[in-house]
């Protein structure tokens, strides 16, 4: 909490001084009030002097008005500080989360980050508001009331000295047991958020698999778990109020009893006894409020450490001081020179310390303008491998280079502008088709957008929308079919002239004909772009379908993160057992027969040297 105050409180220091100072003045009036009431009783009511009653009544009224005025100023300061700090913390968190790499985001998890940015910031905000308003008030009122009471009469003050520690002790006992529960409550809230998010975002799948009952059960368990902890805290703290009021009222009885005897003996006035009773209630109520403050601050401190954990997390992927990389402009004449667009040099990656490698010792080189197909079973590391290219993750060992430069030497923005990725899960955000397409280039013209849509085989259904490019897109693109969403995300990647296009299983929802037309359009663009002296396009196509990758210039067969085979379709079919098995399970008999009869095509004279087919799979 202190760390957050140090980081974000500076701007509000003035408010944090003015607010409590105003509160202090209000407390002083509160402390004086019982004394004025005592005077009113003794000099007015006791002496049957109406003028004195009116006089002290007016003094009380004036004190109340002044007190309220200072309170209002304090409230305003508290609101400005807490809301301002809340906004700043939320903004800083959001910005920082955007700088974190996938590895850090995986570690925290999206639901936890959402809870931190909402619930945890709210807790801190509440604590700051209460801090400005109450941190001075209740302790000062408790101590002040006690001192004032002792100043009136030491003998009666003994009752105070017994009651106050008694209540303090009860509070200490209860709070010490409650505080660990408060910390657990936050973690349990995270779990509820996680289940909620999974259940709601996957509502269709849940229904399709008739898993509603299971999901409800899972949610109920998490909610019950949180509720049980909250009930345990509630039970513990439920003893506080009755005990406080019991002690307080016993104390008041004792004061009235002993005080009554002293009044009869002429040692005290009635007004002084009343003042005593007031101070007693003020002190004990203050202790209750101080305990509430302890609860709020405990929760806030748990929240603050969760916020600091995110803010202090250093992004593992940075690009400080990286100079822009000069890009090769490949005119038609130079295409034959095998400029390396993409290369992996013994690249390995694992998702956690001690976890098995998701990508293991991958070495390959793809010349400019060529197409790399990556094929392999589910979980074979295809997505992980391609995510090393735009530096969504950094290779643990080995290196990845784009256009001959190590990706770690690129400015991240330039790298991600040059490398366009179509993720496996098509993600669109609410807005319009245009606002979704212009992510990579906000100034893209309508013509560029339509060209991209044409290539992505999406122009037809966009044309059919009455508003065309301005047709609305709902959150997550749920007003489009899976295939349409995929085509729109492909079009988005094609806007802004990328030089490396990565399609991670992003044509899986397209029918074979559309998939083929899409690949043809991309190849056309690649060849035409290069022939016209424009920016050459190198493509990486990840797929589980042989038909999608078979025409690629180079195919990489992945198996458990390792390269099981590398070469063209024909080469791999004859040399790589795993690839042949995949082909046999997917291609029609005629296609396979044609395959078996086909001779290995000789490379065209002058064509970039196709890498010699290699196969790491035993028996290949
Ligand atoms: N965010 C992640 N955290 C931990 N493990 C992961 C993560 N993403 C993928 N993996 C693991 O890495 C392996 C490769 O996954 P992935 O690259 O997505 O496979 P593919 O795209 O070939 O289906 C799998 O075993 C998967 O369980
Ligand atoms: Mg994948």
Walk me through what this model shows:
This protein is α/β, with parallel strands linked by helices. Helix content is 62%, strand content 11%. It contains 22 helices and 13 strands. It has helices at 2-8, 13-45, 50-99, 102-108, 110-134, 137-152, 154-201, 203-208, 212-238, 240-264, 270-311, 382-387, 412-418, 433-437, 446-455, 459-463, 482-494, 512-531, 546-549, 569-575, 577-586, 589-597, and strands at residues 340-350, 357-367, 371-376, 397-402, 405-406, 419-422, 431-432, 472-473, 500-504, 538-543, 554-559, 562-567, 614-615. It is elongated and about 120 Å long. It starts with a helix and ends in a 5-residue tail after the last strand. Mean pLDDT is 85; it is low at 597-620. The protein binds adenosine-5'-diphosphate and magnesium ion.
